[in-house]
Specification:
Chain lengths: ~325, ~325, ~325, ~325
């Protein structure tokens, strides 16, 4: 292993830059050459490569997004696309590739691995929806971003005695909603993982109002419905003053929190070590507070078993 | 003047609490008694008063929203409503009232003033849309909140080479959009004050892309249209990848920045001084970095003349 | 179990309030009565108790410090002191006590447990120096606070081409220094756990300067020496421009990050459950991402085995 | 005017980068060429110049410090030093120079101006100690940084019932102490501008404790003494538990707040306009919320007349 490359793919997440930095610095520290590949698999197919030196990753550890930029690629799902990419890698004599991204990115990394390119995958997504890791790169930052937004909204909810329905990211996974909900004392949390009866929310709202709680916060992961839908339901069943907020893309950005920087450093460093040992086809993560190493196939096999329901139940007990 | 009261009315803003704290502490410092009136004019009509001691405003200087809560009141616009309120004030022997709120709140304060209740108005609104002051209480915090959100969105805009259209508060006033736009290097800013030709935005987008600028931020004050409308226009005229974000209620919250805390302290303190001198019917503000004191009528006469256009023009020059 | 109490003891940490909130709300949810004990064991001996209702823990989840206030108590180490405390608990018919604090606080909780008072301990300290848990309540917030401060100092270090020596908390444990150092790309980290040769720091400084790196950040945990001592050493051996910063008490404060709020909720909730089951004499924590439950004796037996050295080594590799 | 340059000098401040960005972008927008001069006057004498394009100031508006780096230069105070600098400027055909810095930097700019180089000065310092402007670039950010630190320290002060003495920057000017003190509800503020009797602080401490206020915050600008000195004084006169914190270099860093970004944009833009009009020898600022333009000599004539005492007095009234 003389020369490796790194790319970021799929939705960007805060934590990608610390991971890129770790891959580049660790590799150079151990005498390897490193290439940055721009715009994910698109750049891999276009040959959009650049030799990275230490200074290229200077001053990025605290920056959100990804300096390598990212993309989603349909073309790379084809045999043709993969062939072109492999040709580029061979032309540059690149022996190993670190792929930072979500589930879709891992599928691309697996395809390359099966065709003989050594690849290691790092879980870069805010959604925490990757099997084999308790936490993905960027998830903790996103949770804190949502938490700070909800803290602000609670200011105004309290001032006006309103019920706020706040929609957060999470198409398939309720992790952001559950964590942020528990962290902000949300009165109800709705996640894609289970169909909580909406009528219980109304019960809790009513009971809260009876006890003198004049405002409440309801968190909704986008995968279970829109904030507007939940607001309509409340308006239909009660006469409480409701407001809706869709947090949107702000959730993807921001300077990574310490945990994501350290996770990026740890997994980025480990990826280089594994490539140097000739390992390929593995997805890294953090499980039970230790680095986890799984075959891509294992990761694809099922959804992660995060304790979403436990967190939501606790949030409800603690929001009386 | 032995006994005064304070209320907050209309949309809450971060800066109200520092102002409440200043009114209460300054009054007690000078031997007055102070009452907090809850829920704005609604509480004034309901007799929802509470005697405030120093400890009631302890630990609130850094909190968003308003501990007095707020409301909008149709009832108080009637003679009947005002009469009831004045009865309550008389029952409590309250000689002066500090009203913290926006334009509508000032109209209520003016009505009371004309009927013999001594009132002083403080400009509490994030919108910066009050005549006679360069800055309202909460505006600076809101601008910084928007700025931080846009900084985060730029992370992801840069990572994906997208045009982001971000909708911010401002029904009649473009101050938040203009300030936050200039502060974040926005490529285009749309405000209610003038009809900027949308086609120039397309020109700038195209020129930016030609120069290699693959992402851009467009700020839209809600009063000039929705972010969705602007996104549709861009999609119609170009093939750039666009995304929309509506920042929403998060803009009203958050711990007040230093400027708003100091403005609250300064104006709150001055309001008490004026009431002690027997002054009534005045709206306070900060103009040319000094406390301004105007009759309510002056404030109602016209819209504020803030240099929105100057800021927007500068933003455009600096976003090439 | 009908009636429980909760106290915070030792140095305050951000995460204590979310834990207090969880204890109180969980208890009330399950029909118990709860008392807050003020000023730690001092208040326990003085009978400084107050019945807590839901509203007493409203709006505290996001606040640093501890609403119960804290203290260090010599008096409670005596038989006499403990006897007085137990008398107060009996007078109030309090059957169980949740103690939130560090190692010293656990010793007090253990003494009470041995004398028949049911106690559960939660690890409330920023230092992360408690055996049997991977993370203490407040540690994550402290790391992020240090990280943000170092990020700011790096701005000025870069602008002036200086070596900054930054002293952080940690008398016996280097966890804060190691985590924050890795999260900020520090060039050297000194911790109490091992005597790193100072001359290697000089080597790295020299090599960095040769490679064009004109500034560097050196993190020092207070337990291994003062920042001034390290600065003197550098000045003696090199002619680099150095500056010193002692972060100080700011490290204890601040709104808890999401992780500390969730840890507080989880452990606080669990503590109540255990007391309801009649369990006593246990210290709770989070190990391998699951709640850990140990006898106090186990916790006292040895120092925690956190991977400080691994983090420091990685930081050095990644700071080339 | 075809070609201009920009440098930053003296202590760095958050607001320098937005000003650099504005100078570069405005100049290029109007068809000028721009050079960045590194390391202030040192770089000017060393010919450390680089042609700047738009991309060189991309993504810097939100960054603290100065991308041009800064220095303090003794050499430039000599005729010889100035001659070498002018030679470099002539070699590059640079017609105008924007100098961003404090009082000392203005003296250099004035020397160049007298020798025929067109210069415009922008007030870049966190200290707010420049005559002719109400606010310097970076001051507002520094005030907010101090405010956030004090907010955090108050968490722990409250939790332990302590008096905290906090030392902030300000050798000659108490602006940071006064603003941050009023913004955080500090109980006492000591500034270089006047010798407040220390015994009054003791009086206030005692009275506060009698009223039940068990903690207090005392802000000390470094120019009036060290925090340690004030702590010793308190310990001598009372038996309160005191703690000391020296905020240090963190005050210079951080992402600029909106106000500093807008001030940088406005003054940077104006500097280019003036140079294009052939103006030289002027210091820009913001006075009474409008751009101020003064001869350097005016600025040197006296200390700024900021209402430090008014703010300190108000802070004391409001901290009862």
């Amino acid at each position: 292993m003389k020369r490796i490359a790194v790319l970021t793919s799929g939705g960007d997440s805060p934590g990608m830059n610390p991971a890129i930095r770790a891959v580049v610095k660790k590799a150079i520290y151990h005498g390897l050459e490193v290439y940055g590949v721009y715009r994910g698999y698109e750049g891999l197919m276009d040959g959009d490569f650049r030799r990275f030196e230490l200074k290229d990753v200077g001053n990025i550890i605290h920056r959100g997004g990804t300096i390598l930029r990212s993309s989603r690629s349909e073309r790379f799902k084809t045999e043709e696309g993969q062939k072109v990419a492999i040709d580029h890698l061979q032309k540059y004599n690149i022996d190993g590739l670190v792929v930072i991204g979500g589930d879709g990115s891992y599928r691309g990394a697996n395809a390359l691995h099966r065709k003989g390119v050594k690849t290691i995958g790092l879980p870069g997504t805010i959604d925490n929806d990757i099997n084999g890791t308790d936490f993905t790169l960027g998830f903790s930052t996103a949770v804190n971003t949502v938490m700070e937004a909800v803290d602000k909204i609670r200011d105004t909810a309290t001032s006006h005695e309103r019920a706020f329905i706040i929609e957060v990211m999470g198409r398939d996974a309720g992790d952001i909603a559950a964590w942020a909900g528990l962290a902000t004392g949300a009165e109800s949390i709705f996640v894609p993982e289970n169909i909580t009866a909406k009528d219980k929310m109304i019960d809790r709202l009513n009971k809260g109002y009876e006890r003198g709680k004049k405002h409440s916060i309801i968190l909704v992961a986008e995968g279970i419905g829109t904030a507007e839908e939940f607001a309509s339901y409340i308006k239909e069943k009660t006469n409480y003053d409701t407001r809706v907020s869709v947090l949107g893309h702000v959730q993807r950005g921001g300077s990574p929190v310490a945990f994501d920087r350290i996770l990026g450093a740890t997994l980025g460093g480990k990826a280089v070590e594994l490539l140097m040992e000739g390992v390929s086809g593995k997805a890294l993560g953090l499980e039970k507070n230790e680095i986890s190493i799984y075959d891509y196939e294992y990761v694809f096999k099922e959804k992660p078993k995060h304790p979403i329901q436990v967190l939501c139940n606790l949030a409800i007990e603690l929001s009386i």
